[in-house]
Every structure is written in structure tokens, then in C-alpha cells.
Amino acid sequence: MSEQLVFTRPEVLADVATHYCPGCQHGVVHRIVAECLEEFGLVEKTIAVSSIGCSVFLYNYILVDTVEAPHGRAPAVATGVKRARKDAFVFAYQGDGDLASIGMAEIMHAANRGERISVIFVNNTVYGMTGGQMAPTTMVGQKTTTCPGGRCLEREGGPIHMSEIIATLGGVAYCARTAVNTIKNIAQTKRAIRRAFETQINGEGFGFVEVLATCPTNWRMSSVAANERVGKEMIPEFPLGVFKDAAKEE
Amino acid sequence: MSAKRIFIKGNEAIAHGALDAGCRCYFGYPITPQNDIPEMLSSAMPAAGGEFVQAESEVASANMLLGAAACGVRAMTTSSSPGVSLMQEAISYMAGSDLPGVVVNMNRGGPGLGDIGPSQGDYFQSVKGGGHGDYRTLVLAPGSCQECYDLTFEAFDLAFKYRNPVLILGDAIVGQMKEPVARREALPIDPAEGGNWKLTGRGQRAPRILKSLFLEDGALAGQNLRLRDKYAAMAAEVRFEAFETADADLVVVAYGSIGRIVKSTVRALRAEGLKVGLLRPITLFPFPEAALRDLAGQGKRFLTIEHNLGQMVDDVRLAVRGLADSEFFGFLPGNMPTPEDFDAPVRAAVKGA
What's the total number of domains in chain A? Predict the structure, then answer.
């Protein structure tokens, strides 16, 4: 019986151990991005924009031309890249502190202009690389190093729901929130990222995918417990779904 | 140089200089007194086949510049003092990532909101790095509309030669005044420029990474030393105008619009027989320290005149240290200086020996 290869590492994904902590889901999201780049034949024409946070080292794992953006500025840098090189496929990869706090202006306006770029937004409700401080997406009651008693609605406000906000902007072609806590949700994340990339390929507008993900280290949880938290706590607060798809509105 | 002479503002001269130098991406945000530049380029840049984006902030416009620069495209952003403060983050990242781009600051009064009139209060910010980290940018200081055009035209070559941001430091005077300007033949776009480092999509080659993060042991020190060597090499680009310095007892040092106005003062005092000259730095980084030191070695005295409380005078004193000193006269922002404003201080300094 001949062997049939049914599962392999995408070639654009480096064959190295990552610096990510055990149970961190950046690796899963990286792999999905890598698969989509290969399936659309985009690897050779891609320019990635990495941002500040754990995923700044994106370029060590996804082997495409990459520029490193200042904190929160990835959508502005990606705008400059895409305007300078319209034939390139341009995506930015950002965390929640980067995108929803310091980079709020840049993401809103890049989306509103309908820049032909794709933004992968990994939301794990905490600043990971700096050691677990409160993020704009931190949930009420969640303990972090800067809200050790738990985030207080009256004092710090509640978590920001970026997908719902982004979906209201005219230039957005596709906006979805997914998770990677189950096989089903991983498959849905792949479909969402494929569709976001497709909107750029087709010139439809701005594509945005928010992926709910774990940070076991800064949540002070085991990998398994962190993954369970995504389903039990995060998804009820941040509902999954497609918030806008320009193709389906026509 | 072609015979095409047009009567334009300094701000417009900068826009023309950029277009003729092959700049094809412009990112800006409205701020007085430089709005003529984005207003003109909002139509002229697309007409030239380029991209114009009115950004959401100067933070964003400078980061768009960073992105376009990473693609090896000639790109520019322009602003004035408060806006340039917001750009310092991106300028630091560009310096740390060896990215070429042109940033124009039409200096207005400060600190804070200041006013919308001319000032040279941003000298330190311009020549000492400006943002965080140990870096420098080339700084060009036009004193006329023609220099606004010429220095902008040449800034792009310098930016790509050194893979470094180039700052053009004008002010509300040179930006708003009108003079005849001779344009040059437009440079053809060179698709090969930046070919060995720019991002194009990796194609069949190894991926390229443009970054300023160096966490490995010793890596950042290596990057800092490499940048130090680059900044030292920029000394070859030093430019200045020396006017009547050969037999002068007193050399006035002034740059930009103020240098231009002081030149009239010097000319008037020369007509009276006073032995006074002018050294007008055109590059503020690199600073013409060798020329100043040479003049100091000849026994000349110095008076630095600026449109601030005294910033460049520090660099003049460093240049002539051990040989001479420099007096200082500061004209304060909020008013338009005339040659007569500098008559008394220059006259006093000449006689001060």
C-alpha cells in the first residue's frame, strides 16, 4: 500500500521551536495564516507587518518579507506599504494591547479608509510580553498585574469589543471574530482568515479577523484550563461570528 | 538646470522639489504653517502617478512613511513643530531600521501650541536625534525658496545613500514667502533603487526583515556602532555658505531664514567698513564644525544669532572650543525679524574686542 501524505508543515512556516509559552495559541494562528498564504499562492508577494508584543517575532516563524512596526502603528505602516507597492499582499498581525489601546486610531482609520490590507487581531485579554498587565480587552473581574483585585467596571471601564466597532466602518469588506479553542473553531478561523485575505486579493476593501486566544502564563492557568476559559468566559463576552461581509450584502 | 522659473512659496517649492526628485508617496496631516504642501500634493501627487494620504495624525503619517520607505519608494511627510513631535517615534524606528525618508518641519513657535509664526525652537530636536535612542538624521536648513526646492530635491538621494531619514528644517518665513524658483529636470524613477534591501515580497530569494529590535547578546551594541560609523560618514555632506568671512574680525553664525536676514545686516555693516562676515550652516547635521574651527584658528570671534533662546550656539561653542567662544543673540518668536533687528547686536559684538 502506498503512503499518502495527508498533513504536513506549510513550507512558509519555519521548522523551529517558537518562543511562545506552552499553551499559547499564537502558534495555531501563525499556522493558519501560513496555510492561507500558501493556498492562495501569496507567499512570494507578501509583505507582513509585525507589531509590538509577543508576536513581534512573527518574522522568525512566517518566512516572508516583513517590516516591524512601532507599538500600535501596524495599520499605518501597512497602509504605507500597500500604497507604495499595490501588487503586494499585505497583512498586519497585532495583539489586543497593540491594536485596541495604543493603536486604536490607526486601526480605525485604516479600516475606515478601506485600505486593501488584512489585519489578524489576536485577543487574549492581557498584555503578554510585558508580563500580564490589564489590556483594553481585559474582562471585568479578571485579575492582572495592574488590576490585582480584578478589573473594575466603574474604575477601568469594560472590555472593548473591536469586531463590533470595526464592522460599523464603511471601508470594511470583511470582519469576523473566531477562536481556536476547539477543532470546529480552528476550522472556522481558517475560513475567516481565508475570506479576509480574499477581500484583499479581490480589492473589495479592508479585512479584519479577531481571534480569541489563550495566555496561560499571564492568566496563571494551565494550558488546559486556559483553553477551557476561552469557551466558558471569553466567548460569552466576545461572541463569535461574522460581523460584516461585503460580498453577502450585495 | 532648466530655464523653467516659477514664482512660488517655499512650501510649494518643497512640494515641487519632492515631485521632481521622484517622490511618489506623500503622507500628511494639516497643521499651519505648512498646509500648502499637502493641499498642493493632494492633486499633484496622484497626477504624477503617486499616492497621497491625509493621515489621521502625524503619528500615523510618519508610520505610513516608514511603511513606504520599507518598500524602497521615495516618500515624504511634512508638518510643523507640534506635529513633528508626534513623528519622533516613527523617525527613531526608521533610524533604527535603516530606512530612508524625507521629513519636513516648517518650524513654528513653541513650546506647546506656541504660535503659528516662525521660530527656530526645534533645533535641538532636529539635530540631536529628536526621538528615543542614540541616532541622528541628516538635517538640511533652507534659507530661500530656491533652497527649499534644491534641498528637498537632493534630500531623497541623501536618504537613500545613507538609508536614513533626512529632515528639512525650514520655518514659517521661508515656507510662506514667495520667490522665483528654477526647477531641475525631473529625475526618472529608478525601479532598482534599494534593490538589495527593500521589501518587494520575497519572490525566489530569502525573506528580508526590516527591524530595529536586537535582543541577542551584543547585537544592539553592534547596531549602535554601525550607526555611529554611518553618522560619521555623513560628515562628507556638510554644506554652508561663507559670506565675507576671509578678512572678518567677527563671524556671525546663523541658519535658515535668520541666516538670510542676518546676511542683509552684515552687508549693510560691511558698507560702513566693519569687518564682519557670516557663516550660514546649510546642513545642521552634519554641522560645519571644521569650517568654524578653521575660522577660530585664524583668531576670529563669533556671534551666533538664532530665533530662539540659544540652541545652535552650543554647537558653535563646541566647534571652536579651546580656540574661541561665541556670543549669542536670540530673537524671540512671536515677531518677524528684520535686518535692523540685528544691527545693534552685531555692531556691539564687532566693537566688543
Answer: 1
